[in-house]
Amino acid sequence: MQELRPDRSPCPFVVEGEATKRVALSHYSAGRDATYVLVSRKSDSKMPIEELAVAIGYAPFVEGTAIIYDLTDETMQGKARPFVCHLSRRMARSYMLLPFQVETIAARMLGRDKKAEIQVAFLDAGGQTLEAALPFGLRLIDAAGNEWKCEFFATNRCGQFARRLEDIGAAPMQASRLEIHSLLTGQSESLSLVTD
């Protein structure tokens, strides 16, 4: 994701003891108060791939009210509390830390036909746009309800996404609706491409 930038500050996740020999933590700035964290197996780890679970704690600067999202499972994990990261049968798991919970997907279409523009943002409980690069899938669904195309995008670091339908290959004769699927929460929002 091009909106992610290497973060030189200390990692918000902490592993201790034996776990430091088995896993690596890397983190990236995803916007104003958002951090993407990757927990991965070290390549020299002798642990069989099916048997690794690591206790994750937090650096002292992480607020207890920060919200943790598991991007691998597309679920909100909850507030920043210690947890076990299961790398069983996986090389890595990815997480996102945000200061506020994602409440809704705001999606709208401006214009008509293939020149129309799709706009996507993620809002907090106060209806404010979360200023972060947040990932989502954009599915094109035909009139029979079949998915014929799926692409992955992210909002920019200000929390906005805008793209013309023709730039993503969507045309009303092929797709009847767009489905925006949050990779943070698993929630979806649909927009009709059929005009009356």
Descriptive overview:
With 196 residues, the chain is mainly beta. It has 2 domains: 5-98, Immunoglobulin-like; 104-192, Sandwich (Immunoglobulin-like), CATH 2.60.40.1930. The chain is 2% helix and 45% strand. A 6-stranded antiparallel β-sheet has the order 1-3-4-9-6-7. The longest helix is centred in the N-terminal third of the chain and has 4 residues, at 19-22. It is elongated. The two termini are 36 Å apart.
Task: Tell me briefly what this model is.
This protein has 196 residues and is an all-beta fold.
SSE topology sketch:
Layout: E1 5-6, E2 13-14, H1 19-22, E3 23-29, E4 35-41, E5 53-58, E6 67-70, E7 75-79, E8 83-86, E9 92-98, E10 104-110, E11 117-123, E12 135-141, E13 147-154, E14 161-164, E15 177-182, E16 188-192
Antiparallel strand pairs: 1-3, 2-5, 3-4, 4-9, 5-8, 6-7, 6-9, 10-11, 11-14, 12-13, 12-15, 15-16
| Shape call | elongated
The number of helical segments is 1
Spatial gap, N to C terminus: 36 Å
Structural class: mainly beta
* N-to-C order of helices and strands: EEHEEEEEEEEEEEEEE
Radius of gyration: 19 Å
Domain count: 2
Measured as a percent range, the helix fraction is under 10%
Q: Which regions have little confidence, pLDDT < 50, spanning 5+ residues?
A: none
The CATH topology of the largest domain is given as: Immunoglobulin-like
The biggest beta sheet, please? Answer: 6 strands, antiparallel
This entry's quaternary arrangement is: single chain
Specify the CATH class of the largest domain.
Answer: Mainly Beta
**Strands, total number:** 16
Q: Based on the structure given, which CATH architecture of the largest domain is correct?
A: Sandwich
Q: Strand content of the residues, in percent?
A: 35-45%
Q: How do the strands of the widest beta sheet line up side by side?
A: 1-3-4-9-6-7
Mean pLDDT: 86
